[in-house]
Design goal:
With about 375 residues, the chain is of the alpha/beta class. It is about 25% helix and about 30% strand. The longest helix has 20 residues.
């Protein structure tokens, strides 16, 4: 029996999860490494070579690292759950005129559930991942907060984790900067891994072409949606587009329309296969409604409070007043924000702590 107990670590074969697993092993934990197989690249139909966390190379890398450090390793096949839930939702959201956030959905409903289920089977007290975030217990709540390295912070994609999940979760990299983690990998003998470039693609869209992915997943999609109208907010027809699912709020490039000034996607109307265009200043909104919220630092807001609200992963955040209304949050920004995209995650912060988050439903002007 190890001196610190037994912990299940998600190992993708990449830099961060490798360092996390080895850190726990060196601290005296009995580490069980799990590599999750979420997706078959052969089924994506993309043209890019198989890479990333689900590739055979990555799985083999994770296994060899585990063996080297005396870590028991296993592969967890969650392709069915992932495909039915995450990929189906991804397609459905685009067909509904929204911009999905598959990584948040996967973390919340697939990966953590799978890890905790296997941890229970193996009598592991905790689970751990290589995310750059922190978690602590405060006032009978488990609170996610930003990682020390602001440039790598991943708290935004963890807002959906339940209190039950967070109670057993450890984020060992949250108190380090990426440069420090790279140096640790070098010191462990993984020079090549430390210098490996990072991928920011959606794991099941390896060629980073979500439009092509949608066309391959939905038979006849191009024929169904091609030829809808680009219009202005007052209804003036500007031209034809290639199908509303192939556009996102705030998009400027790739519109293939010339009117003498830059235009941006303001709204997407799937019912009429219409895409509304306008000037950049028309993207500014004062507030939004956020649905399906999950509360973190506080169980519930009894009154409106001030927060920093992020509407996308790389957003620096905007000061806002948030008010909880049942399972929705009304958000009023103190300064207008640009390109609020329904379907994306909104995450509310109290300093570095995650108050909660949810799915953007609609933007509005006050």
């Amino acid at each position: 029996m190890s001196k610190n107990g037994k912990i299940l670590v998600a190992m993708s074969g990449g830099l961060d999860s490798t360092v996390a697993a080895v850190m726990f092993a060196e601290q005296g934990y009995e580490v069980v490494g799990v590599t999750m197989k979420t997706w078959d690249y052969a089924n994506s139909g993309g043209s890019k070579k198989e890479t990333g966390c689900c590739s055979l190379d990555s799985i083999n890398d994770a296994r060899s690292i585990a063996v080297k450090h005396g870590i028991h390793h296993m592969i967890l096949d969650i392709r069915d759950e992932f495909g039915d839930f995450v990929i189906d939702n991804f397609v459905e959201e685009y067909l509904a005129g929204r911009t999905p956030n598959p990584c948040v959905l996967c973390n919340t409903h697939i990966k953590w559930e799978a890890l905790l289920k296997r941890a229970n089977q193996l009598d592991c007290e905790f689970i751990a991942t290589g995310h750059y975030a922190q978690v602590r217990s405060e006032n009978n709540r488990f609170v996610v907060s930003k990682g020390l390295d602001e440039n790598k912070d991943q708290s935004y994609v963890l807002w959906g984790l339940t209190q039950q999940s967070l109670a057993r979760t450890r984020f060992p990299l949250g108190q380090y900067r990426k440069t420090e983690i790279r140096q640790m990998a070098i010191d462990m003998g993984y020079q090549e891994l430390a210098n490996k470039s990072e991928s920011y693609e959606i794991c099941f869209v390896p060629d980073n072409d979500y439009r092509g992915f949608l066309k391959r997943k939905v038979d006849g999609l191009e024929e169904q949606v091609d030829g809808g109208n680009f219009i202005t907010r007052d209804g003036k027809i500007l031209g034809k587009h290639r199908g509303y699912p192939f556009y996102t709020i705030g998009q400027r490039k790739g519109l293939e329309i010339a009117v003498g000034e830059p235009l941006y996607v303001l709204e997407i109307e799937p019912e009429t296969n219409t895409v509304v265009l306008g000037r950049e200043e028309e993207l500014q909104r004062k507030g939004m409604w956020v649905r399906g919220i999950n509360m973190g630092k506080f169980e519930k807001l009894s009154e409106p409070i001030e927060s920093i609200t992020k509407i996308r992963y790389k957003d620096v955040g905007t000061v806002s007043t948030i008010e909880q209304v049942d399972d929705r949050m009304k958000v009023v920004f103190h300064d207008n924000v640009k390109a609020i995209a329904p379907g994306q995650s909104a995450v509310f912060y109290d300093g570095n702590d995650v108050i909660g988050g949810g799915w953007i439903q609609i933007g509005f002007d006050v």
